[in-house]
Structures are given as structure tokens and as C-alpha cells.
């Protein structure tokens, strides 16, 4: 979901509730959760604190390689994060610098959501699709649909 503030800065929000796993969750359990929830990233928590993030391709590779035990060791660290309410440019920078295609949205120290690069692209594209306001005194022909070509 994308929310636009009055300054036309696009604020990125997570598009669905965040699913989390514990470090002791097995690879098979994490894969089932990914499939069931329809997500590609799972934050890994320990005592309520995020300690890493699982990415679908890493879980698939672990399953193919027969990795057993908990998912803690295959979680990516450090985790790219943004504050709740971060705008699109801030979120895009965090994703790029973090080396993943997503960032966790944090509300204080609590994982509030996940924002993917796709979410950022969609938000920026939607912003560009918004009609610009015509300067005062200049009619906005786009509003009427009139063809003003000579």
C-alpha cells in the first residue's frame, strides 16, 4: 500500500502482515511458511529482536543442499532497515546499500513490515502517474480530456 503525503513524497508501507520465524525454525518449516504466506522474505527473531532475514533463494539452496537444523545460520545479516513512515528514496537507498531486494520496516525495535524493491518501484511509478497541477490561471486540458493539439 502506498500513501502520498501533501509534499508529494511517497511513503512506503508494507503490503501485507509480516511473518517471522525463530532461529530454531527448520528449513522445511520456513519454506512451508513462505509458500503459505505468499512471501519471499522472513525476518528471524530471537527473544523478540530481529537477528536476520531469510530470503527464498537461500532457503531453496539450503533445502537442495540438505541443510538440517534451524535457519539461524543461513539468515542474512546485517538486515537492511527503514523506520516506519520512511519515504521512497530513503527506502530505495536502504535496499541498495543493504545488498538485498528488501528492507525491514521497524517501529522502534519491532518489525512492523517488509518493503521490497518492487514496492518502491510501484510507489515511485504511481507518483509519476499522478497528474501535475496546472499553474494558476492556466487551464488544465488534461482534466477535461480535450485534445489541444493544433
TrEMBL record:
Entry-linked Pfam families: CBS
Q: Where is this region: Disordered?
A: 131-150
Enumerate composition-biased segments (Basic and acidic residues). Answer: 139-150
Report the residue ranges that make up the CBS domain in this protein.
Answer: 13-69, 75-133
Reading the lineage from the top rank, the first entry is Bacteria
Tell me the keywords, alphabetical order. Answer: CBS domain
Q: Which SUPFAM superfamilies match?
A: CBS-domain pair
InterPro entries recorded: CBS_dom, CBS_dom_sf, Diverse_CBS-Domain
**Entries under PROSITE patterns matching the protein:** CBS
Name this protein carries in UniProt: CBS domain-containing protein
